[in-house]
Amino acid sequence: MTISENDDAQASRQQQLQRAIEGVHADIQKACSAVGRDASSVCLLAVSKTKPASDIAAAYQAGQRHFGENYVQEGVEKITQLAHLAGISWHFIGPLQSNKTKDVATHFDWMHSVERLKIAQRLHQQRPLDEAPLQILIQVNIDDEASKAGVSLSEIAPLAQQIQQLDRLCLRGLMAIPQAGASAEQQAQSFTRLADAFKQLQHSYSSVDTLSLGMSSDLAAAIEHGSTMVRIGTAIFGQRHA
User: Fold this and answer.
1) Secondary structure (DSSP) of 90-131
2) What's the Cα-to-Cα distance from 187 to each of 77, 136, 177, 178, 217, rounded to whole Å?
3) In this protein, which residues make up the domain named Alanine racemase N-terminal (predicted)?
């Protein structure tokens, strides 16, 4: 491919991502309008796992600022490559092993999947002193699925209290991955339980303002139940690579 052809391909990809991001924002606007919410109250988190840094740079040029990564090494490589992009915010949204906490504490801005005090303590200890506190969401296993990570509803308050004592972390709210294939009624019940837990947490901590809930398939329902951050991947970047 010549330089000219490569430039044309990059321009085409940026236009494609621009249209996709605008489409997702339109979906957010529609869902918010249906329940009387301001669309600015919902943050779009572009899930960029398995996608190249060039895609993230193109999405950034299209106005996207928040990006979610599931794999530590892949995420760190992209963060390093794109360190020149001012105002970009990196969210770690996958499961995290204890031996990988330093990389997340050092490179990411947000951590969505805290479910154990040990992980929170390690992130606190390893967060550089010259960086802003790491923004923390507690992952909730809202449907009590054996195959999923996350705390139960009854475990939110004690873990939140413990995280609040760690000054290099800032507790921002809750994250959940709803049960796949649930009926609309089951989904509404799960989302209501999570929304209630979020409101209780807000009453206890002034820093709590984020409910990370909803993907492409359940965006409208999540927004109806108070989600302030939706995690969208395929609808922006296309099918993921294996």
Assistant:
1) EEE-S---GGGHHHHHHH-SEEEEE--HHHHHHHHHHS-TTS
2) 36, 25, 11, 7, 12
3) 42-240
Residue 21 banded pLDDT, cuts 50, 70, 90:
very high
Token reading at 59: 């999405």
CA distances to 10, 73, 91, 212, 230 from 179, rounded to whole Å, are 37, 27, 22, 15, 16
Mean pLDDT confidence for 215-225: 94
Query: How confident is the model over 94-122, as pLDDT tens digits?
Result: 999 999 999 999 999 999 999 999 999 99
Mean pLDDT value across the chain:
94
**How is residue 68 written in tokens?**
């979610």
Name the residue ranges covered by the structural domains of the chain. 3-237
User: Which CATH superfamily, name and number, covers 3-237?
Assistant: Alanine racemase (3.20.20.10)
Higher pLDDT, 77 or 217: 77
DSSP codes of every residue in 11-58:
HHHHHHHHHHHHHHHHHHHHHHHHTT--GGGSEEEEE-TTS-HHHHHH
- Total residues found in the chain within this entry: 242
Q: Does residue 3 or residue 131 have the better pLDDT?
A: 131
